[in-house]
Amino acid sequence: MPIKTFDNIQALSDWYDAVVFRSISDDTLFVEDTREHRWYRYRWTRGKREVKFVEEHAGALPLVMQIYP
User: Fold this and answer.
1) What's the CA gap between 12 and 63, in Å, rounded?
2) CB count in 10 Å sphere of residue 40
3) Comparing C-alpha atoms, which of 3, 5, 2, 1 is closest to residue 44?
């Protein structure tokens, strides 16, 4: 079960012990839960106050770039 919100990208990366990626097309964030081998999609809330869970991502990732660490 994914965590619903994080204060920042560092906390998101630390929780999953994984690299955080950002989609080039729509700025959503992707992180892999390496224990469960699942990809989760997150999005910044308004004003970039916190990172919120959107959905479990199935299939191929869109074009992304690594943003943390």
Assistant:
1) 20
2) 20
3) 5
